[in-house]
Amino acid sequence: MKFICVYGAVNDKIDDKFKQAGIELGKKIAEEDYGLIFSGMKGGLSGAVAKGVSEDKTKPIIGVMPEFFRDTKVDEMFDGCTQKLFTDDISKRKEVMKEMSSAIIVVPGGVGTFDELFDAICTKRWGLMNKPIVIYNIDNYYKNLIDMLEYAIETNFGRENYRDTYKVFDSIDEMFNYINNYK
Q1: pTM reported for the whole predicted model
Q2: I need a surface site. Which of 35, 86, 87, 171 has the fewest CB within 10 A?
Q3: What are the angstrom distances between the C-alpha of 146 and each of 108, 156, 162, 168, 176?
Q4: Which residues contact 148 (CB under 8 A, 6 or more apart)?
Q5: Integer Cα distance of 59 and 56 in angstroms
C-alpha cells in the first residue's frame, strides 16, 4: 500500500469551505488507492481529510504524533485511525511521516504546517528524499507564501532549483495526475 502524507491545519475554527475541500481530498486519496499518514488529529483540515479517507473502510489511516500528545491531546485525536504511532518529538514525527509516505500534500495551515512544508522542501533539495511535494492551494490560501518563495529566488536568497522541489495546484485531479506520474 502506498501512502499520502498530508500536512495541514488542525484548528476547527477554519471556514467550512476548507473543511469541505479537505473531505473531498480525503475521498480522492482513497479513490486513488492510497492510505493516509497525517497528524492524527480530528480537527481542522487534517481531520477533514481523514474523515474523507475513512468513508472507504478499506484504507489505512495512520496518525503520527509526538509522545507528549498521548496524554495531553487524547480528546483531539481522530477516532478512525487504523494505527497511531508516537514518536519521541516533533522532529522525529516529521521524519517518520516523510519516510512512510509516497507523496506529500500540504493543505492550508499555520506555523506548524509551514514548518513541515519547509522541512520537506529542504530534505528533497538536499537529495535526501525523492517524492512529490505538492501544495494544494485551496481558495488561493498560499498565494502570499508562493510570492515570498519567488521573491527569495528573484533577490538571490533562494536558488532557482527550489522551484523543482514542489508544485502548486488548485485542482485535485491535476494534483493526482502529477503525483501518480512522478518519476
Answers
A1: 0.96
A2: 171
A3: 12, 15, 11, 9, 20
A4: none
A5: 6
Confidence of residue 73 (pLDDT cuts 50, 70, 90): confident
The top-level CATH class assigned to 2-177 is alpha beta
Q: Which residue has the cell 519547509?
A: 118
Q: Exposure of 182 by Cβ count < 10 A (0-12 exposed, 13-18 middle, 19+ buried)?
A: middle
One-letter-per-residue 3-state SS of 1-38: CEEEEEECCCCCCCCHHHHHHHHHHHHHHHHCCEEEEE
Kindly state the cell numbers that stand for 25. Answer: 481530498
The contacts of residue 99 (CB under 8 Å, 6+ apart) are: none
Per-residue pLDDT tens over the stretch 139-178: 999 999 999 999 999 999 998 888 999 999 999 999 999 9
